[in-house]
Amino acid sequence: MPTRSIFNYDELTWPEVAELPRDTPLVLPLGSGYDLELLADQLSNPPRIGLLPAVPFGWRGSGLALPEPIFFQVVANLLDSLRDDGFTRVYCLAPQGLDPQSAFHLSSFIFQPHIPATTTFLPPDSERGKVILIPIGHTEQHGFHLPLSVDTLIIDSIAQGTSAKTPTRCWSFPVMPYGVSTHRSSFAATLNAGGRAFEDFWLAVIDILAARGFDRFYFMSGHGGNTSFLVNIVKYAGERHRRIFCATAFLHTSGSIGAAALEKYRTSPIGGMGHACELETSYLLHLRPDLCHMERVVDETDFVATPDYYMDWIEGGSLVANPPWDDDSKTGAYGAGSHATAEKGRLWLEAAIEEKMDHVEQIHEQHERREKRRNEGYGLWGKLK
Fold first, then answer.
1. Domain range list for the chain
2. Which of these, 99, 124, 127, 278, could form a disulfide with 268 (CB 3.0-4.6 Å)?
3. Tell me, what's the pLDDT at 177?
4. DSSP-assigned letters across all residues of 118-131
């Protein structure tokens, strides 16, 4: 089968997905290493096949196996997102031997006999004592000019940069390209793992890793829609496992180091950074300029703003709400993508990595100081046997 007939779904923009024939087969792989010619044969050789980003772990044999009802609920939600957009040929490509029948109908699956075997657990046991970085992006619309992979590409680069600079202090999971979007009906192409399924998935990951002796975790998100669910996960995990330190942060480039860099280099006013904006477009111009369509940029800053509720990268105000996305955007963008440059993207990536390195050190300090107190019998810890 010619390679050109297989396209990467997450490299498209949402209008391009909206224009796809609804009988185009869309395939969600569990891992990589599949025979794409065999896949085409299994699908009766259609003219085009859309390949979604691979789920990197979670199934039996992946290096980190979750309880199957929890894992396959996320898969089911992702496939249902595509069906909700009207696609009629939606599949999960899985290694032979899995039995997802308890989760949903077997006809959603295509099985192949072999993918490269995982030889070590994720993470390897040698990484105990390090902060385990858990980068989570998403596959969602980013206006007319950016691909669906924006959030995943950015947070993966930040996580990999952080672990490369401090390999003795942290270890990074492969990036998860799926998160939570509650606005997905407004514009085509956005996936949704489902809020409760997302929480169950990541709590199960922490449960397994804590049982294996890992005790420091940092959820790093590239997608704003993940934030409230990650806060819940961190709270549940901290109560469930009292000797770990599990943390998250609001997105990236948003703490004291990132905020200073945004202020230093941005040229858009407040409202110019939100989604497919000056910041995210600059990142993509630096990381993957081949996926940027700057001739299609539409600046959208007409957010319905009040003093305690407005849009910018570091959101302002005390009000929290979730109005329909299309109240404030005609194209799917929030912000001023026309202000973006690759040089700003490079500078902001450097700042984001520096910020995450600082967070890694704070997580270490938090865990070590708390363990010292516990071991010395501080407060109620002195009464525990």
1. 3-112, 125-254+353-374, 256-315+328-349
2. 278
3. 98
4. P-S-SS-GGGTTSE
